[in-house]
Write the structure tokens for this entry.
Amino acid sequence: MKGKKFLLAMGLTATFPLLAGPPMKYVDESGHVIYSDKPVPGAVRSEMVPVAPAPDEEEVKKARERVEKTERMAEEARRAREIREQEREEARKKAAREEKPVVIIKEEGGGGYYPEYTNPPLNKPRPPGAPGHRPGIGPGKPDHPAYRPPGARPPVSIQPVPR
């Protein structure tokens, strides 16, 4: 069916140039370009537009073979996709039919299903002499903005201006 439609379309497009005259390019008084197969009244300039020749039988035959090959490949891809979809559907149904055991883990002394967890402090000060110890880093630095009450300003020292 697709081949018949293709041949009909090729036949119709091949007959259109026979019904029309040679394509012409016209320019009117205001400089507008018009393409037509019929003479345009009031045209200032006209010239013939070159047209590529129609494909020969060998080119048409090769084009048909490419179309048929593409259609075969598309059909094979469609079948492969349908097979994959069927396999996935069967696997989904099989997994739904199988009963999975329900496992409940209860922690001893945790009071629930989840163990208690507390986050360790991120900026834990290290004792002097320990690897990674940096003096002045960590809690206990009273002039740091994080330890000031909201709206408080940093301490300002006033120096006398030399005269």
